Amino acid sequence: MEVGDVKGFFAVITDKSTVMQAFHRKLKDQFYWILTFPCFLHGVNIIISEICSFLWLKKTTTKTTRIVTFFNNSHYWGGQLKEKAARQDVKCSLKKNCKSCWYALILQASG
């Protein structure tokens, strides 16, 4: 394993794959002072992807995406919804899930 000059390093963050876990072990063996951490967001991504694999959640996400798409694509009904939201002092807007390397489902849930 060739890393180069690591005198200025004190921590390394990577994803949690098996290859990176092996890299962490080798790095710690060679450079004992370096702290190694798995990426927290990668762990959250794995948890969300497992939750999203449940059939009932897939169905719910599909239905909510259809509703959000309707309002976002409709000039009239989207405008009506925005006016109602403004009258009730709602600051967020409708967002839908999209396929990405990071699960964008959190956008839909956070509103």
Q: What does the model show?
A:
By secondary structure, this protein is mainly alpha-helical. It has helices spanning 18-30, 40-52, 55-73, 75-87, 105-110, and strands at 11-14, 35-38. The longest helix is centred in the middle third of the chain and has 19 residues, at 55-73. The N and C termini lie far apart (45 Å). The relative contact order is 0.11.
Write the layout of secondary structure elements.
Blueprint: E1 11-14, H1 18-30, E2 35-38, H2 40-52, H3 55-73, H4 75-87, H5 105-110
Parallel strand pairs: 1-2
Helix pairs in contact: 3-4
Task: Write a short abstract of this structure.
With 111 residues, the protein is mainly alpha-helical.
Count of helices? 5
- Per the principal axes of the C-alpha atoms, what is the gross shape? elongated
Q: How would you sum up the major sheet?
A: 2 strands, parallel
Question: What is the string of helix and strand elements?
Answer: EHEHHHH
Q: Helical amount among residues, as a percent range? A: 55-70%
Q: What Rg, in angstroms, do the CA atoms define? A: 22 Å
Lateral strand order in the biggest sheet: 1-2
Low-confidence stretches: none
Beta-strand residue percentage = 5-15%
* Average pLDDT figure: 78
* Classification by helices and strands: mainly alpha
| N- to C-terminal distance | 45 Å
Number of strand elements: 2
